[in-house]
Design a protein that fits this description.
Blueprint (H helix, E strand, L loop, with lengths): L1 H23 L6 E3 L2 E3 L6 H26 L1
Antiparallel strand pairs: 1-2
Length: 71
């Protein structure tokens, strides 16, 4: 049971990174369910979400460095 829970936590870390990036871009009222992010419908909502997902990769991979270094 440890492995699935561990992987779930790594996935949750990515979701948190995406939410942080959305907040930096001024998006509020974000709902996150697993790998899905609901944002208010605005003309640029999809673009902001794409940018946030791309930007979240760098801090997420940086955080994973310690995980892979110990494996």
């Amino acid at each position: 049971m440890a492995a699935p829970c561990f992987v779930h936590m790594l996935d949750a870390l990515f979701a948190a990174c995406v939410i942080r990036e959305l907040r930096r871009r001024g998006v509020e009222n974000i709902v996150s369910i697993h790998d899905c992010w609901y944002v208010p419908r605005t003309p640029d909502a999809f673009i902001l979400l794409q940018e946030a997902v791309r930007a979240a990769g760098e801090p997420w991979f940086s955080a994973l460095e310690c995980v892979f270094r110990r494996s």
